[in-house]
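Hello,

I think I submitted the manganese (II) ion job twice by accident. Can you confirm which output corresponds to this input? Input:
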Amino acid sequence: MSAFVFAPPQPASVAVAGSSDRFPVRRILCVGRNYAAHAREMGNDPDRDPPFFFSKPADAVVDSGSTIPYPPLTQDLHHEIELVVAIGRGGFRIAAADALSHVWGYGVGIDFTRRDLQDVAKKMGRPWDWSKGFDQSAPCAPLVPVATSGHPAAGRIWLAVNGETRQQGDLKELIWSIPEVIAICSEAMELRAGDLIYTGTPAGVGAVSAGDRITGGVDGIGEIEITIGAPR
Ligand code: MN
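Support: Only one job matched these inputs. Its output is below.
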C-alpha cells in the first residue's frame, strides 16, 4: 500500500449556517456577465453574449468575518457580490428541469478581481486566472441548506463599502437562471458534490482599499462581511 509523500492538505471548506459542520469545497466555478446592467458597465452587450465561465482554486474560499490582505500585483482590487450555489449531488449533462435537485444550499460570496490585470488579459487575449484566482479571492458567507432557504428566484442582492451602498440588484435580473447555469456548466464538465458556483454580479463594481470594511447580502440567504488588510 502506498503512502502520500507528505500529509495531504485538509480540504478547503466553508461554514454552514446554524451548524458547526463545514461544507467541503471541491471546485469554484464562476459565471461572467450574468446581470445585464453589469455587462453594460463592462462594455458588453448582454443580449448577445452566451454565458461563460472561469474558475478559482478551491482554497481561494474564505469565511465571512475574515480580514484578507490586499493582494499583490494590483492597484485596482474590485468587489463583485454574488449569489453562490453549493452543489450537493453531482451530475454530467444535467437537465435544467432537474438542476435544482442537485443543489445543497446557497450562500453569499464575493468574487474579488484584480481588475487592472483582467483589463490587460482581455486586451492581450490571455487567461483570466491571475486576475481572478488569487489567494483568498472567494469569500463566502455560511451556506444555508435548501431545506431552510428554498430556491431563491428573486431577492435583493447588495454590497456596501464602509457602510455606503455600492452594488444593488435583484436575483430576478439574472440573465441565465440558476437551473440554466447548472445545466450549461454541466455540459462542459461533470459537476460533483462540493462544487461552488458564483453566479455573477450586479452593476456597481468598484475598487476597495486596505482598511475598507465590505458588507453584502442576499435577502433570504444571508450576509457577508470582509475587511481588507494591509498588503503582505
Ligand atoms: Mn464575478
